[in-house]
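Entry 12.
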Amino acid sequence: MIGGHPTFIFRKDETIFWCFVLTHSPRTRGKDNIVLTQSPNPQDPQKQYLRPVIIQSHRDNFGKILEDWEFHKEDIALVMKLIK
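Predicted 3D structure (tokens):
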């Protein structure tokens, strides 16, 4: 989690993680977020959005792993396109 928001980490090295941030907000800092097909949080049916900005941050800035979360298959394809 960064700033209280869950993240999807897609790359890491010894000290830095690269990730996307998830949010309930359709816009962040004046930019549109991408609505997800389904919330990756099984306990939260609200719409979830992905910030289409790659964040790099030191590994110490991240919290616990959210074990039971997973993306819908359509959302996985979206994330993979953003990574490339």
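Annotation: The chain has one domain: 7-83. The chain is about 15% helix and 30% strand.
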